[in-house]
Amino acid sequence: MKQSADEMQSVLHQLMDLGMAMMANGAEVNRVEDTLNRLGRAYGARQTNVLVITSSIIITMIFPDGQELTQTRRILNPGGTDFTKLEKLNALSRECCARPLTAAQLGSRIQSICSDDMPRSVLWLSSILTAGSFTLFFDGNIPDALTAMFFAVIVCILQEKLAPLCPNRIVFNLLAAMVTGLGIGATVHLLPFLHGDKIMIGDIMLLIPGLAMTNSIRDMLVGDTISGIMRLIESLLWAAALAFGFMAAIWLIGG
After folding, report:
1. Cβ within 8 Å of residue 42, ≥6 positions away
2. Which helix (H) or strand (E) segment is 10 a member of?
3. pLDDT tens digits, residue range 59-82?
4. 3-class SS at 165?
5. What is the Cα–Cα distance from 96 to 19, expressed in whole angstroms?
6. Is the dihedral of CA 85, 86, 87, 90 positive or negative?
């Protein structure tokens, strides 16, 4: 009995890891709860109670013999969106529902998926193309687009080097927007034929939490009101930090 309980504790621990990985890669709350409920039943639980919000996951598994196991996990990193990883995690969950893996096998598969990051070159290239494209879309010219593409590289460097040093996303967005805005402002002063507003619009699109805001509305529409409100408030705070960062840069550089 003790060995069985220990094994199920290990399985539950891996289920928590799977839920956190899904949240970190852009899964909606409803999807995570449904996945964990299905996996709990697949691993022999008579009843699985799952509560997921943007900052916490709680799972209680009740087995036919009356044994109850509960684990809670605090989510500190809001994560981002990676549909490739999310699809792999979904495929893994479906595989486990059809043929449950051991805790060690499940943990190894989750770690393998989470460590398979997008190549740095692909991330940088997509950021460069995004910044340039939005600058042109908002009526910028070719020199403006090229300048926005250059500062997109700066944003990528800040995301790699500065983000791990910041206590939260609000502080990072504020500092990143200020640094980027100061650089764009100085460049426009040196090259007056450039349009600073168009360049800033192109680069701010790399940091704007549009997808997170959309996800918050989606969560509320499917009934996860608490998670939706928390996501929405976070998104608005992130957006406000970006606005204040660029406003401070414009003020410091002299308009």
Report:
1. 96, 97, 98, 100
2. helix 2-24
3. 999 988 888 899 998 887 766 778
4. helix
5. 14
6. positive
